# Entry
Amino acid sequence: MSLSPQQQAAVDFIGAPTLVVAGAGSGKTRTLTAKIDHLVKTGYDPERILAITFTNKAAEEMKRRLTRLTGEPIYRFPWVRTYHSACLQILKAHCEILGYERPIQIFAAHQQQKLIRDILMDLNFDKKNTAAVMANISNAKNTGDPLRHFDHRPRVSHIRLMDVFERYEKALMTSNAVDFDNILLKTRNLLRDHPEIRNRYQELFQFILCDEYQDTNDLNEEITGLLLKDGNLFAVGDDWQSIYSFRMSNVDHFLSFSRKYPDARIFRLEQNFRSVNEIVQVANALIDRNRRKMDKRCFSELQGGVIEIHEFFTDRDEADWVARKIEALRGMGVPLSGMAVLYRTKFCSLSFEQSFRRYGIPYQMLGGKGFFERREILDLNAYLAAAVFDRDDASFERIINAPKRGIGPGTVKKLNAMRDGDMSLQAAALKALAEKLLTPKIYNGLKGVMDLLADIRAMAPEAALREVMARVDYMGYMRGYSSGDADMITRQENIEQLLYSAARQGSIVDYLEEAALIREDREDEEEDGRGVSLSTVHAAKGLEFHVVFVVACEESLFPHWRSMESVAELEEERRLMYVSMTRSERYLYLSSAGSRKGQYNRRSRFLDEVEELLL
# Structure
């Protein structure tokens, strides 16, 4: 693998904690992969290298690269994983210590929502607060100290968060389940409170590598420290691209690396291999206005870039100009797939969607619903979850009347009233069937559900899914809520992909674990790889395009109005602008509209800052 001198120096160095400060387009993934290859070739066991990525897709791609580089089979890299995936392996191995049984279940978002909604209603609070309460509980867990977090933010509306949190955690435990955040929190507890387990994994991992280190949260950082032995840590990232504080990431871990590890070595990757130097230098100067940052001076040997700022009267004028410019660039040979329109806030996409339809420009939305969050996938997976996790009330309630079989809310309420203590909803259903407390129609419908769950429980996941679809005529049911032929075809394709994915797993539990772990990896429903990309800046991070339009650059939009009162948040907004600019390889257009949604807007201060650099 060909490396620059700076990349090679970082790869070759072993002997102290290492931070690689990697500018945009500087080849940090290449450097990280080369580092692992170097470790393996100098005698480190690939099965004892922990390499943390932030998506499962990135982990799988890294494994494929490593097999090509090292010649080792892919199974020799079992610990190239996300934080959640790595921690799940540890938690599964020792969950009995924390009072769980095997197999432990991972609750997805809809199951968490069901639990919290039920708790709020039981406490006589409006269920419309479910999302806010759920977000606060998630944020609290990711600090690593939820109880302290609730001291600072005790309530949502009039709801005391601690009361909901305690009930929620008890309900998870009763269901022998963890939510996504608990995978990390419970693993941290294992490592922190049980020295024998901590020592075991410190001995196992000869080296720890962490990608996107600027995006770690407090809990990630603590887990890394608990696993680390002898300072064998290689962290890669860019504080200039730290844009996820709303997900509880903490850039201080990056900025304070040398304070935490006094003997640390810092390497800087400053050559940008993606963008032309004109864009790199303007982006450098923009981010220089931030006070809290790690210094570096990025450069590029590529020349010939275009940077322009445009102001328009309305958002429609802006969108129509972008459409015409795209047509002109397309005529110059730039493919539509090499162009992107980026915005800070999602609603800004509407004017561009409308304009692109008028001009006949194909486009694709990035960052749409994840595959495992689509209705048909949630339905079918709920059957599997209810079959193997008989205490999963949320999944059972989802499928009890889907398709409709006469078991309405009244019946579910009746079943809930029959529950004694920690009795699950499925146990109550079996009790109702045994005691024949139901009308014949409801009895037959409920018995059909219970028989189906019993029949698929021991099946392979693909076979179980096919059995469910055949027994309940799921395709016929799906036609009832599809919005048209195209929608039905899309749903059919989704199910075909689901069956293909399920066929690669040995058991239903394995399949559901994988589904839970990759839920954050987004797939776009419309993507065909040929259209212009429409995306928020957050969703475009890590991507690159020949041409980038950064639109809706107006005060209160970009920077967002919520950031205006905080220096730290305003600096993160400027980092967002830096990220958007450095997605471009050659052509960069920044624009604003004086009127958007019928309201007057002043152009963004970021445009003023960039314009000063262009004069």
